[in-house]
Amino acid sequence: MKLRLHLFEFEDQPWFPNVVRAGMLDYLRFMITHLHTYRPIAPLLAEGLRRTGQTQVLELCAGAGGGTEDVLQALQQELPEARILLTDLYPQPAAWRHIEQQTGGRIAFVPEPVNALQVPAALPGFRAVFSAFHHFRPAPGEALLRDAVRAGTGVGVFEGAGKHWWELLLACTVLPVVLLCIMPFVRPFSLSRLFFTYLVPLIPLFTIWDGVVSILRMYPPEQLLQLARRADPDGRYAWQAGKVRHPQGPEVTYLVGWPKGQ
What we know:
- This protein has helices spanning 18-34, 42-52, 68-75, 93-102, 138-151, 165-172, 174-182, 191-199, 202-217, 221-231; strands spanning 56-60, 83-86, 107-109, 126-130, 155-159, 237-245, 251-259.
- It has 262 residues and is of the alpha/beta class.
- The chain has a domain at 34-164 and 218-259: Rossmann fold.
- A hairpin with a 5-residue loop joins strand 6 (237-245) and strand 7.
- The radius of gyration is 17 Å and the shape is globular.
- The chain crosses the membrane at residues 168-186, 198-219.
- Keywords: Membrane, Methyltransferase, Transferase, Transmembrane, Transmembrane helix.
């Protein structure tokens, strides 16, 4: 699917209730982790870290940290010293603290808001965006990549879907049923999450809408490369984009780049 529609997504809105947003992100984190969605991109991340001389992945727009533990586990098979630092414009310290404890501090977080378009120089690492780049229109998406080029750091964009029509059907039918079945098992446990899933089902309803819109908003590899080249008009970076797939999980659409000669 090459069509891209930037429709309204509830999670993007600053007025959207944080308790509902957190529940949606917790569900996304659970699914991405248990489907091992991002395991196939571990070699790309490892190459990016080696080429840029980094051991830390700086995750931007981290949400609830969906799949980060799984990514780290796969990444450490190639780079045992690898670590991940979570950041977001809307930090999720409760979810992140749980991840930090589960990984013995190998995944840490910044509790203050971090703007992905203006990353502070005090936060080093190979910049990575998981399941979130579709939130950006072309101009701010280009600005995110340009900020990485300006800083001379590696950058990667990863979306846990292949942008197919059948994925829209799944988002409307199968995945809502899965959500209703798994919510009691999502950790850390939250009564508010259960309340807004079963008694006042805002989490399932908004998840269906935002899930469909997320797929429609996704950039295919060709458009990701166009954004990268506009962000790097002097051609200082080596860019590549495409799709990879886990044998038992969905496709991952990706863009990675790092300074040439590294």
